[in-house]
Amino acid sequence: RLHQLPAQLTQEHDALISLSAYNVKVVWRDGEDIILRVPIHDIAAVSYIRDDCLHLVLLKTAQDPGISPSQSLSAESGKVLTSGSLSECGTGPVESCCLVILATENKAAAEELCSLLGQVFQIVYTESTIDFLDRAIFDGASTPTRHLSLHSGM
């Protein structure tokens, strides 16, 4: 809550992560109060970083994942949320984003979280693709006059 990541993880920082096809939810382990909810479609990137003895999973998100971008919270055996502006070489437009920082107890937990997020993305992407193709096929089947010009020359 000091807008910094604590140097040592304690039970006070312990939280649970819930993944669904719609969002990533972080809740306190003891009280089940929601710390943070990030819609899946707002997540732009997921990364694993090992810094000294810390194992961090970072989620690059849209500007506002449900709480103030300047807030810092604790989550998943660790902690969460900072924001900033990114710019390449100081030129061009500045891309504003938030980083959700989740510290895990070990490398295996971080890799498992990254893997699960990858599976959720794959499921959502596949479902969206199927829905898109279903709509395209349905629209094509319901308006056959659209394609008559292709076959009229035969």
UniProtKB/TrEMBL annotation:
InterPro entries: Malcavernin, PH-like_dom_sf. Belongs to the CCM2 family. It comes from Engystomops pustulosus. It comes from the Eukaryota. This is CCM2 scaffold protein. GO terms for biological process: heart development; vasculogenesis.
